[in-house]
Amino acid sequence: MAQFAVRATLALAKRTTGAAFSAPAATRSYATEASPEAYGYYSDPLEHATGREKKMLIARLAGDDRYEPKIYYSAAASTKEKPNLGPSHFSDIIVGCMSEPDSGHTNFMTIRKGTPKRC
Asked: Which domain holds residue 45?
């Protein structure tokens, strides 16, 4: 029934204007880069960070690099009485050890505070 009403409306429009009734051609716009003025700038990560993440970001901005990953080389003459120490703010630390200078892989281990391990 609705299809008949549409056909009747189109036929009436064709009779009154005397020309064929057609819809305008659709055009597609091209994608462009969004401007910050139109959509706003990226928010500051410091505003959304909480807890440890915020503490780390504030320390990094202050120039404190204690949370950055570092490479520590083991001492040549380390013993059980004088071990290599790995600094950490937590009770666990993940350490990567290359057992031999020519090895092509790294052995990773988790070390807990107070329990020494040997590579």
From this structure: 35-68
